[in-house]
Amino acid sequence: MLRSSKTPTPVQWPVQLAPAASIDQPLADGGPWIVATNSVPKARVSADVAAVLRAVDGERNPAQVAHLLGLPWTAADVMGIVRQLAHTGIFDGGTNQPRDRRVQFRAPLTVQFTLFNPVPLLLRFRPVIAAFARPIVALPLALLLIGGMLGALTAGPSIWRVLATPLPLEVYLYVALAMFASTLLHEFGHGMALSYFGGTPRRIGIMLFYLSPAFFCDVTDGWRLSSRKQRVVIALAGPLVHLGLGSIALAVQTLLPASSVKDAALLYGVICWAVAILNLFPFIKLDGYVALMSAVDIPHLRQKSVKALADVVGFRILGARATFRGNGLLPWFGLASFIAGVGFMIIGFQRIVPIFLQLGYSGHIVVFAILCLLIVVAFRSVVQFFRAAAKNGSPLWRRALATLVGSLAIGALLAVIPVSPVTVAGYTYINGQLLIVTPNGASDGALEPGDSVTLQSQGMVIHENLGRATIGEHPPSLSTAPVDTIVPIALAGTALPVLAYVGQVEESTSLPASGRAEVTSRSQTTLGEWLWKAISHSPLWPGQPERDDSTRGHS
To answer: Coil, strand or helix: which one is 35?
Structure first.
């Protein structure tokens, strides 16, 4: 009747459904009823359980609800169902809550902002959706994919060039606009598939997903479908949109002459294919995860698997009671999901931090706020883990010992793990003179004589190694350098103010006039020392001296 792995929660009667709660009926005979809050499914229930939930009104007691439903219901049955679902938050004491919130938070690190309801728009496209759902359409779609593959093969070195070298600004503008439109179409693909099978896409919006902006389409209404196959198709519809659009771009570029439009088509096609493949990753809440969750028919698979992992770890390490009784693969999936989640947060942090740090004082405030958020999320997760272990009978001494050992392990790693700081810079190579350049706002002490330099191509995706060099003994000086020493944008006749260090070439192929440089410090330090230096040199740290550019040399 009821699918729930949660411990029953005490309930104060009488109870009623919260204004934000809903009991959604199946989309087809035999399908599950869905218990949702703020349009987010919380549990799948049978028709009998749904009848109980619809009967509680804040006035009737369990006996009265059972009498209303008739035999074989009893007051104990009614109380049991309400206790099992209390953890979902669908009950309240009659307070008026807003049913729909435009801004919503999803653990562990996702913030969603609703833009609009897509249903009216999707209804207009329903004939098109029905036409594409015919089996005969599979043939032209297969030909489209083959055409994209052939286009990629015929492009040959051109694909490497657009990925590994600076491109004109208009190329990036074309690709950015196309990616914006295709990402929105990706989400419409999910909505169209759900609409075709009889469901209702609840909302479309934008979100911060592991610190990265993205669109989303809420298709959780698909859980009312009884067919696993249909739910898998809904999940995969988005990646198929990107795969199709990328194939079109790669096929069409073969007909275009050499131009910025052709380069944009190549870059766009490759990115679309990469997005489609990335979305199939099953350990993060991407489309591949939703497809897997639908195929195995386990709602909230990631949440349940991480909880199973916590139960196993609590049993093995903290001596808590073994509460996990499910599939033996579930904790392993939880482990992979946990590692992937941490990895995505680190990648997102690495992507966003350099951008904000270049904004000066305000940028450092943003980075500090993000760090605080990550620390709070991590601390909260640890506290919840220990509380659950204590509730399941973990001895205090084992929890204290685990805390001590964990703290010592973290301290040891900070003190032992070697770090060679790497600074991303640029270079110019004119008339045999090599200059390693950093943005003018960079610290004078960022690079030091003797530091090793890897000279690379300045591409958006690929950085091809072109040679090696070292930082010379001369002090840095103020100068100017082409834009493509800092970013992969080719802007002829445009230069940026930079801090230039004289470099000595050690080995190289034919070096372009400018490119990217990765400078590895020869002063190796530990992870703890590196973190402390990064924190103490921040402008937010008390006592930091004011910058004085007047003491620098000029070239």
So the answer is: strand
